[in-house]
Amino acid sequence: MNNGDPIHGTVQAVSCSAAHTFGKPNQAGIRLLAGLGVEGDAHAGVTVKHRSRVAQDPAQPNLRQVHLIHAELHDELQAQGFHVAAGEMGENVTTRGIDLLGLPRGTRLYLGPEAVVEVTGLRNPCSQLDRFQPGLMAAVLGRDEQGRLIRKAGIMGIVLAGGEVRPGDAIRAEWPPEPHEPLERV
């Protein structure tokens, strides 16, 4: 557990796609818009934009405005023989140096000089991963010692404060006040 000290990391890559594509091309920079998400990204908006969520209820709030994946997952997958690079699993921000999956709900991520993203939950991996590379979905799922499912395909968040985010930018994570709530799928 964190003792309240900020956690630091870096932005490795940023990605955006105006279309509902599985992967997102890397960019020199992206602009986060408060309450909306990534400017120009298909998933930006006040209400949910992920197709499966829209089918359930198009009026539900968009808790999935920004998708972040830790580059350490890419390293792990490459060691298993998968060929995965930043943006190819649909993330907007690829990070390094922060245990994204270990953050509690409500953690604030300060990205670059201005942007702030509040962590809302875990990305729920879907079958599109296997269409990208067979076996990839199973590789981003695991079980803990109690047999509970572990989702490793990144986290989701909402934009509290907008701003430019570029590769090389610093990331500072500040945990919310206790009691901490573990991340669940959103």
UniProtKB/TrEMBL annotation:
Residues 25-174 form the MOSC domain. It comes from the Bacteria. Pfam families: MOSC (PF03473). InterPro entries: MoCF_Sase_C, MOSC_domain, Pyrv_Knase-like_insert_dom_sf. SUPFAM superfamilies: PK beta-barrel domain-like. PANTHER family: METAL-SULFUR CLUSTER BIOSYNTHESIS PROTEINS YUAD-RELATED, MOSC DOMAIN-CONTAINING PROTEIN. This is MOSC domain-containing protein. It comes from Paenibacillus gyeongsangnamensis. The lineage of its organism: Bacteria, Bacillati, Bacillota, Bacilli, Bacillales.
